[in-house]
Specification:
Layout: H1 8-54, H2 59-69, E1 79-87, E2 96-103, E3 121-128, E4 132-134, E5 137-139, E6 149-151, E7 164-166, E8 170-172, E9 181-184, E10 188-189, E11 194-196, E12 229-231, E13 238-241, E14 245-249, E15 252-254, E16 258-261, E17 267-272, E18 276-278, E19 283-286, E20 292-297, E21 310-311, E22 315-319, E23 329-333, E24 343-346, E25 351-367, E26 370-372, E27 381-390, E28 395-396, E29 411-413, E30 418-419
Parallel strand pairs: 5-7, 5-27, 6-8, 6-27, 7-9, 8-10, 9-11, 12-15, 13-16, 14-17, 15-18, 16-19, 17-20, 18-21, 19-22, 20-23, 22-25, 23-25, 24-25, 25-26, 25-27, 26-28
Antiparallel strand pairs: 1-2, 2-3, 3-30, 4-29
Helix pairs in contact: 1-2
Length: 421
């Protein structure tokens, strides 16, 4: 019986076929793994480009949405999609985006015939270059001042969640201000957590609003602006109702606390050839459901100069309208004004509790205080100047609620997107 060799070929064939089937099965699985890995890499490439183009706080959600379009859904079938910003770039910078798509255990079909092969798959990509940055501080630099943004020591400056842009250069001594991005058209020397030079200049996004300034009803002679306009009463909180448009000829001074009830969506206060003097200890405030835009403007009067700015030791506590012509605009200096527009103690004299845009296109500003949101407004602040020096704390509130505040922040596409790895 032991010497009977009948059927041995069948046994050997069966054993050989088992090995052959396993090898073929492994080859098929390897081919599918390669195909899946290639698809995963393509998805990572597309997702990282989308993240870099987004350039905002929602870049991660955008990357995951694009990966899902390729069939790789974060959290499904063992797949994880991870998106990160401020990653190392091949050239040494640290402002790139990276997306990684991974699957801990790949699908297997035939290979278990010859063993337990369950590899993990991953695809990763890095992109940089083009990012759309939104700015809470924009220095237009039309006067040619370079640097148009200067951080003068600023040991405790905090511009967290705020990016800054200069149409010339920017220089920060001792502290980078804490801004998310510091972008300069020429050279950035030490400003921002992520610093970039040679980015495109930003055109003034708000100059066109000047066509909506109400017509001057004061006249054009010096006598038209000689009267001191007074609001409020000492030691009394005065509530005033403003029509849609109020025009004041010359200086406006507060004698006490003034709370404004305004028209809807907000009232416009036009100060022709005058300053707004908020006396020490006094507050100009909008009540709940009210909003205000303050416009400084005025005709040229030969032989006379005027101050076109808020002054005094009190507090401005108001929010811009969230819709309408002046949506998001709190203070607007007429871009036709080129003198009497500088501010030497922004955020401190008076104190700024403002929700919205402060537009000072030809102003040299010294910023020494802090800006907080108004009592009844969203957390949003933007400042446009010719040039600015930041001293002291120089704190600007977070700008995450500008959409709710009705303000479109200045933006800039800082370069062309490139897939780097």
């Amino acid at each position: 019986m032991w010497r009977d060799e009948d059927g041995i070929i069948a046994v050997l064939t069966a054993l050989a076929l088992t090995v052959l089937i396993g090898i073929v099965g492994l080859a098929l699985d390897v081919g599918m793994w390669y195909r899946s890995n290639r698809a995963m890499q393509n998805a990572a490439d597309a997702a990282v480009i989308a993240a870099a183009l987004n350039g905002t706080g929602s870049f991660g959600a955008e990357a995951k949405a694009v990966a899902a379009q390729y069939g790789f859904v974060d959290g499904a079938n063992g797949i994880t999609v991870t998106a990160s910003n401020n990653q190392p770039c091949p050239g040494g910078a640290t402002d790139c985006y990276q997306v990684t798509i991974a699957q801990a255990t790949a699908q297997v079909f035939f290979s278990p015939v010859i063993g337990n092969f369950t590899p993990s798959l991953a695809g990763a990509a890095t992109a940089g270059g083009s990012q759309t940055h939104s700015y809470c501080l924009l220095a237009l630099g039309g006067s040619g001042t370079d640097p148009a943004i200067t951080g003068n020591g600023v040991p405790a400056a905090n511009l967290d969640n705020c990016s800054i842009m200069s149409n010339t250069g920017m220089t920060c001594h001792g502290h980078n201000t804490g801004a998310t991005y510091g972008d300069a058209h020429t050279t950035n020397s030490g400003c921002g957590n992520t610093q970039r030079s040679n980015v495109p200049a930003v055109a003034d996004p708000y100059s066109g609003l000047a066509t909506n300034i109400p017509a001057n009803t004061c006249g054009t002679s010096a006598s038209s602006f000689a009267t001191l306009n007074l609001w409020g009463l000492p030691a009394v909180t005065t509530t005033m109702t403003l029509p849609a448009t109020t025009i004041v000829c010359g200086d406006l001074q507060l004698l006490g606390d003034v709370t404004l009830h305004t028209a809807s969506p907000g009232s416009v206060l036009v100060i022709e050839n005058g300053k707004l003097n908020v006396g020490s200890g006094f507050t100009l405030k909008t009540e709940a459901s009210s909003a205000l835009t303050i416009i400084f403007t005025g005709p040229t009067v030969a032989g006379h100069s005027y101050t076109h700015a808020p002054t005094g030791g009190g507090t401005l506590d108001f929010n811009a309208p969230t819709s309408g012509t002046w949506s998001g605009v709190a203070i607007y200096q007429d871009p036709a004004l080129t003198t009497g527009v500088d501010i030497s103690a922004a955020g401190g004299s008076p104190t700024w509790k403002i929700s919205g845009l402060v537009y000072l296109p030809h102003s040299s500003v010294t910023f020494s205080g802090a800006v907080n949101s108004s009592s009844n407004g969203a957390s949003c602040f933007a400042l446009v100047v010719d040039n600015i020096t930041i001293n002291g704390t120089g704190e600007i509130l977070k700008t995450g609620a500008c959409a709710a505040a009705g303000l479109n922040l200045p933006t800039n596409n800082v370069g062309a997107i490139a897939l780097l790895q």
